[in-house]
Amino acid sequence: MNRRELLKLSAISSVLLLSGCTKIIPKPIIHFIEIEPDVKLLMPDSQQERVVVVGGGWAGLSMAKNMKKNAPHMDVILLEQRSQFFSLPTSNLWLVGAIDMEYLIRDYLQAARENSYTYINTTVIDVDRDDQQVITSHGAIDYDYLVLAPGIEYDYSEWTSDSRFARELQTLYPAGFLSSSEVLSIRNKIFDFQKGVFLMNVPSGNYRCWSAPYERAILMADFFKKEARNVKIILIDENQEIRVHKKEIERLFKKEYSDIIEYYADTKIQTVDIKDKKIITTDSVEFKFDDAVLYPKVKSSALLEKIELIDENGEANMNPLTNEDLEYDNVFVIGDARRMNFNRLGSTALSEAKELSQRIVSKSMKKEHVWKSPQSISFCTIGIEPLRVLSTQGEYKYDFLKHRFNFLEKDIKKIVKKGEDDNSLYEWATQSFNELFS
Ligand SMILES: Cc1cc2nc3c(=O)[nH]c(=O)nc-3n(C[C@H](O)[C@H](O)[C@H](O)COP(=O)(O)OP(=O)(O)OC[C@H]3O[C@@H](n4cnc5c(N)ncnc54)[C@H](O)[C@@H]3O)c2cc1C
Question: Is the Cβ atom of 379 under 6 angstroms away from ligand 1?
């Protein structure tokens, strides 16, 4: 019996109670009635099986499209709180004026039109997994399958336990790994910054896009150099060494941009003093700055926490091989919100969602489905004129003894003539946008 049926029963119990028939019912269940909100349906019930996808990022868009493609008979609904898509991949290039904003922005309605699913611009505030119902700011929607792809949140808890101060840090020194407003703020900071110390950091753990903080430092150094501005970039890295493309990035830091970039490995921020504009490290070293971009650790979306789909380590409580919720077998988590199985990348999310759409079709047909690894592709731009890009790609293999995935990574070999642009990043991004939107 699910909660909705239980509510019906409790309603009958209370009617019986009021009509004086209590003698035959020793303990009427009346308390459920008090907590049932009067939620209107956002979408009427469907005769078709319904898949509701929460979050229209790389994972959710790919999920909605491929679900409809693999199962045209299903009713697919994408719920996204934003009214337009903004791509974080390639956004570092926009920060320094190398590409136009139009390249990063896409239209959700086009994606829904061309791929025959329903997009609703709304925020999911709760999920009732007993009743198979998603509660949004505009009403409720019933589902047969639910795919949660709400991405990540910042976790400032290592720097402060005061949520108001965390919010202040995000406002003053946004990381630019979540929203378009943050990225816009950083671009304005860069364009307005005439001289002084610009401080940035690299967190540890499975933060979003490992190469992006190094890429940002290099592109900003290139920008300031060309503009002949008297700027120093301090990059504080919590990791023991550069996480990706170590040799080449180290060479750029030490040779090409040694006059602009100061890099500190194995250095952890303990506190941020916004009054005196300085950070203090765990080794009590102080770094003063004029402006900053501070990237805290990341964790899975607050929505998962709210619906208690999080384990004691703060990770999605899901089967790493099937993406299924451990308690409810019609609920799935994908993209950067998942357990820390894979690198937090759009490419991983896109291919993982393709695979999950096939798994759901097999499940609905009561067929077995064999696990297939997602593909991760990551780019790091290290020069604008000509365009120079480092890239890696890889797949995952599950280690059943250690209960974790190993990443089998390899550098992408390319033939690009000296002095010519390496367009592989744009080729990948354009192809991915086409995959998601048209
Ligand atoms: C500078 C930078 C460079 C990058 N470069 C690369 C790269 O080269 N290659 C690569 O593969 N990846 C790259 N990435 C990483 C990539 O952007 C992320 O891994 C990807 O966005 C993850 O997709 P997602 O769908 O899981 O999460 P997101 O893209 O964050 O999408 C989550 C969506 O859910 C929505 N949402 C959240 N909560 C709710 C709610 N309650 N109700 C409704 N909607 C909700 C959000 O609005 C959002 O649209 C880069 C990232 C950055 C910042």
Answer: yes
- Determine, yes or no, domain membership for 40: no
175 shares its domain with 277: yes
Distance 57 CA to ligand 1 centre (A): 5
Question: What is the identity of the amino acid at 151?
Answer: G
State the Cα–Cα distance between residues 149 and 53, nearest whole angstrom. 7
Please state at what angle helix 108-115 crosses helix 58-70, rounded to 10 degrees: 20
Question: Which carries the bigger pLDDT value, residue 278 or residue 40?
Answer: 278
Residue numbers of the domain that contains 342: 50-151+301-364
The predicted model scores a pTM of 0.90
Identify the residue whose C-alpha is closest to ligand 1 atom 31. 57
Ligand 1 atom nearest to CA at 216: 1
Q: What is the DSSP string of 370-405?
A: ------EEEEEEEETTTTEEEEEEEEEEEETTTTEE
Per the structure, how many domains does the chain have?
3
- Tell me the three state secondary structure of residue 344: coil
According to the model, what pLDDT value does residue 37 have? 53
Question: Does residue 209 have its Cβ closer than 6 Å to ligand 1?
Answer: yes
pLDDT of residue 411: 65
What span, in angstroms and rounded, lies between the C-alpha atoms of 164 and 223? 34
Residues 380 and 267 in one domain: yes
Choosing from 134, 186, 208 the residue with most ligand 1 atoms within 8 A of its CB, the one to mutate for a pocket test is: 208
pLDDT of 21 above 80 = no
Mutational pocket test of ligand 1: of 209, 389, 425, the residue with most ligand atoms within 8 Å of the beta carbon: 209
Q: Give the residue-averaged pLDDT of 166-189.
A: 97
Report if residue 370 sits inside a domain: no
Tokens of 103: 């390249």
Q: Are the C-beta atoms of residues 410 and 394 closer than 8 Å to each other?
A: yes
59: CATH = 3.50.50.60
